[in-house]
Design goal:
Elements: H1 2-20, H2 25-45, H3 68-98, H4 111-115, H5 118-121
């Protein structure tokens, strides 16, 4: 059981780090979510995995599960939900401001961000390309 939990934490962490390093904002958001899930699973596993044990001390029980990691995970779930909502709103705002969802700088430093920048191509004005917004490509 411990090997399965450790493998799941490692896989989610590796996938989360891989997605955070991508050049688009949606995979970055998914990667951050995976990292928070891995952290929550790690916090939950620190309370020792026990089956059929009460979470608090009762007079008839000889052993119990530590309730502190469970409380930390519940708090972390609420915080990660708020963080994800904030990052999604920031990514949407950046998309509407720049015309693409790249996390790197548009323009000469990023040719692929420049290629699908709808503001430079004039698509926001109803699909017609305006000559004053299109830059000359060399």
């Amino acid at each position: 059981m411990e090997f399965l939990i450790a493998t799941a934490i490692g896989a989610m962490t590796a996938a989360g780090i891989y997605l955070v390093l991508r050049a688009r904002s949606f995979p970055v958001i998914i990667g951050l979510s995976l990292l928070t899930y891995a952290t929550n699973l790690f916090l939950f596993a620190t309370g020792r995995l026990a089956v059929n044990r009460p979470p608090v001390i009762s007079p008839g029980s000889s052993a119990y599960v530590d309730p502190l990691p469970q409380a930390l995970v519940l708090t972390a779930i609420v915080i990660s939900f708020g963080m994800t909502a904030l990052v999604v709103v920031m990514a949407l705002r950046a998309y509407f401001e720049t015309g693409n969802d790249h996390v790197d700088l548009p323009g000469e430093s990023s040719p692929e961000a420049r290629a699908d920048d709808w503001k430079l191509l004039g698509r926001k004005q109803g699909g017609a390309v305006r000559p004053d917004t299109v830059e000359e490509s060399e």
